[in-house]
Amino acid sequence: MTVFKPVRSGSALTVPIKITNHGDQRAFYEVAVRVTGDHGFDATVRMKSEAVGLYPGTSWPAELTAQDSGSPVPKNPQVTIVKSTKSKHLR
Prior knowledge:
By secondary structure, this protein is mainly β. It is 0% helix and 55% strand. The protein is built from no helices and seven strands. The strands form two sheets. Strands 1, 2, 3 and 6 form a four-stranded antiparallel beta sheet that branches. The mean pLDDT is 90.
């Protein structure tokens, strides 16, 4: 999984990610990313790959939206992967 630099989007941060299946079978992924920053900004966003799973050798781009209603969007957010799991597609 690759996490790219967050982009400010109004009162939120958009966190672009790309998941690549390096295995030899279709797989499902679950990801959680925590974004922290100045003035107490702290948000954890999650996503799951759905449908048929990710085929071997393919990538899937996604965007996660991080918001913290109690804090302004930070200028220099820190992004941490807090969960990244892969489960094989059952035939």
